[in-house]
Amino acid sequence: MEMLAGLNPVIISLLQEFPPRSKLNAKVYGNQDSSISEEHIRHFLKGLTVAEAIKSNKLFILDHHDTVIPYLRRINDNTTSKTYATRTILYLQNDDTLKPMAIELSLPHPGGDQFGAINKVYTPPPADQKEGSLEEIIWQLAKAYVAVNDSVSHELITHFLHTHAVIEPFVIATNRQLSLIHPIYKLLHPHFRDTMSINAIARQILINGGGVVELAFYPAKYSMEFSSSLYKDWNFTEQALPQDLKKRGMAVPHPESKHGLRLLIKDYPYAIDGLDIWSVIRNWVSDYTSLYYKTDEAIRSDTELQMWWKELVEVGHGDKRDEPWWPKMENREELIESCTTMIWIASALHAATNFGQYTYSGTAEFEELRENPDRAFMRTITAKLQTLLVISLIEVLSMHSSDEVYLGQRDTAEWTVDLAAAAAFERFGKALAEVEERIVERNREEKLRNRHGPVKIPYTLLFPSSGAGMTGKGIPNSITI
């Protein structure tokens, strides 16, 4: 359920080849392909072959293998952490819930990276297995290693790298190159409020050497190197929600469907609510920019805009300056899509991956196990001090301040004297209110199992408005925590 409606709903992907193959350089890391076989999962497929299940879009994967393996030997050898790289294969059931069928735990080969990985595959115990059996505890432990990898992926990649870090160059270039009266400055400025300040604080106490992140997460002293190394895979255009869903195989183009996409998992709360928010943002950006740019030539001839984009690509994200996917900023469509993506990252994406941290992470993952599980299991659980540190951190991160400014709001009514722009913004606010009503309705539908799982937590992380405090909802305009 949390793969679709939790804190990190941006990793789950459609399985399109079996067994899963690694994209790591085989000359450096040897054979890193999966050892999961058809025999491991056949009895979960309800009579289908693996090929038939793939063709029917029934198989999905949560892949934390290639991101972890390059650091795993150093982590296990040089820190107090001991963990695995993981792959999880899941089956899409008729009620749109995902059932894990196999978990692969991988370690570096003891002879060296060039010899590949040592893989071991675990499957769920038989349905008639006695509760509390060794097989059940081992399966729960395998799931725990997956959850730990997903937690680290969430905090260091999805949350920090893909929102806090990548938005900084946009903030800097906007303030350096666009004048205060420039229409694009007025559009974007609210979505950059306090971001540089909160990132500066993070560098002092959270992501610094010996800081909270290194103490709390298993990569320890390799945490920021781990996060930074994955910047090489970052693609600005793929942070647009529709593009992200298509890249992961979670949606396919479908002009007749709402938003022009058909979701392969119909009950995918993050995607469903997210696409509503994305479309409302995009409509607002399109309405607003059309007031000032009537033609594509107006984009090309705006020297401030062109210098802004040049600095952003060539300096701000200079390591990626030669990537072919960068928009050229030569037409209105490129401006609308780029600004929509920036606003999405700073507002909805950050909200979806931040403000539910205490709600989701503060619950006890292992309460369902027997009262006294195997002692070896207990030795894998984080020490009490680290646990308290993490819980304290995510409690703070999950809080809204009393002066928060949410999507569809401005901190002053005088942000523009252009009546047409003000009217477009008012329509934006009303459209967001309609999205809220739809989210409330969806959360009432008990047949939507991914909104009404066993933990009974309705999906509200993309509900636009909120009050102060820990609410598990609300989309602030910008990254302020």
From TrEMBL:
Alphabetically ordered keywords of this record: Dioxygenase, Fatty acid biosynthesis, Fatty acid metabolism, Iron, Lipid biosynthesis, Lipid metabolism, Metal-binding, Oxidoreductase, Oxylipin biosynthesis
GO process terms (BP): fatty acid biosynthetic process; lipid oxidation; oxylipin biosynthetic process
Pathway(s) it belongs to: Lipid metabolism; oxylipin biosynthesis
Names of the cofactor(s): Fe cation
Domain of life according to the entry: Eukaryota
Enzyme Commission number: 1.13.11.-
Domain Lipoxygenase: 1-481
Enzyme class: oxidoreductase
SUPFAM superfamilies tied to this protein: Lipoxigenase (SSF48484)
InterPro entries noted in UniProt: LipOase, LipOase_C, LipOase_C_sf, LipOase_CS, LipOase_Fe_BS, LipOase_plant
Entry function: Plant lipoxygenase may be involved in a number of diverse aspects of plant physiology including growth and development, pest resistance, and senescence or responses to wounding.
Protein name: Lipoxygenase
